[in-house]
Amino acid sequence: MIYEERMKPTLEDYGRDGKITAKGVLRMLENIAAYHSDSLGYGAGTMDKTGISWILLEWNVRILRMPDYGEVLRVATWSRGRASRFTSLRDFEIYGADGEVCAAASSKWALIDYATKKPAVIDDALEALYQTEPRQVFEEGVFMRLLEPREYSAQTALPTGRRDIDLNGHVHNLCYLDYAYEALPEEVYRTEFRDIRIAYRKEVRPYETIVCKYTEKDGAHVVGIYGDDGVLRALVSFAA
After folding, report:
1. What is the value of pTM for the model shown?
2. 209-217 and 154-159 as β-strands: parallel, antiparallel, unpaired?
3. 3-129 sits in which CATH class?
């Protein structure tokens, strides 16, 4: 089943050049995934009834063209089925006003028991409900694991705060992208990135001070996000 909606990004989704930002793209993808689950009765509003929730593990996003301000977009998503007993894959495409694909993405999600916060098994009935599609947006079809760099060239300490907490009481997924941006050198930050990957390893705790460490590796700009205990929380990779 391919789930689609037309979306018009909001003002906060655009940068100074009048083009949508990478964060704006991710926001639309995150929302369309939520709307799909909402339509099936397994969304954010029914977690207390179903007893389960979906937790994002990885993003792999490729932007082919940055949509212009005011452009109405068609956003599509579909489940590709189980990657393991506890995880599932989901793909996306964003179509511009010209009908052409302007962004594509793959993602990996874990099913979590809402009460215990432990992994839950994705059973056949739940997978059948999502009517999985075999189509995949990237030829490689699988996530190549992002590796933690051995060394970094710079680091930035950042406090987390109330502004970062979402309806689950967690630091919101998109905040990790914001944290990574703060660690980029100014000349790197101004680059128009077309490939973005995020691997969430461990949750950032509300109100802790994190350390974002930056390095350039194999043509990509990589930021490791670490908690105040020194443990890796996420890896973010940017490439032009």
Report:
1. 0.94
2. antiparallel
3. alpha beta
